[in-house]
Amino acid sequence: MRLPLIPPNELTAEQKGLYDSMRKGIASNFNAFKVEHEDGALMGPWNPWLHEPGIGKAIWDLTLAMTANATLPDNVRQIAILVVGARYDAAYELYAHVAVAEKEGMSEERLAALVADLKPTDLSKDENVAFDFAYALSRGGTLPEPLYRLAVKTFGQHGTNELIYLVGLYALVSTTLNGYNVPVPERE
Questions:
Q1: Is 97 left (phi over 0), alpha (psi -120 to 50) or beta?
Q2: Tell me, what DSSP letter sits at residue 33?
Q3: pLDDT category, 30, cuts 50, 70, 90?
Q4: pTM for the complete prediction?
Q5: Count of Cβ atoms closer than 10 Å to residue 80 Cβ
């Protein structure tokens, strides 16, 4: 870890407001994996964001907006997030969203393929579109037109927009995690 964890009693006033917002959002949306050190310091991407609260707040606000306005089914979202995490080989991202997917009942075989950056063989039509979409978009360049049209046909324009922003958000999260070498906590 390239940035030290910040215990709550060492936060600045600006950091404290962001920390409180993050803890509240984490408690309601990100509770399937370890996010907090024993002393209350936030781990994962939240710690780097606290180190730069002006930027961290903007990223956190985007995260909250993406969660509050989610319309895609969660299995579709988790497949897209895991595709991005695998593309970036972002250890904490994979740790966190494997835990979420396991909690939601995703099979071991499917998870093994996703984290290996491979396409699972048991995807539904919607999941297949989400996988191909996230896989193509996370590799750079323009998303192929037939895939874009298929996503609009499958998820509607709003759902396709959400999928694009979701891939972008988790590319940012993964880059943050990798840039600061954020470690994975021990699994319980």
A1: alpha
A2: S
A3: confident
A4: 0.95
A5: 26
- Nearest Cα neighbor of 151 from 125, 130, 123 is 130
| Best CA proximity match to 162, nearest among 56, 74, 59 | 74
Name the pLDDT band for 4 (thresholds 50, 70, 90): very high
For the cut 90, the answer to whether the pLDDT of residue 29 exceeds it is: no
Provide the Cα torsion 140, 1, 58, 81; round to 10°: 40
What are 133-149's pLDDT values in tens digits? 999 999 999 999 999 99
* 3-class secondary-structure state, position 53: helix
CB proximity list for 129: less than 8 A, separation 6 or greater? 147, 150, 151, 154, 155
CA 160, 165, 169, 171 dihedral sign is positive
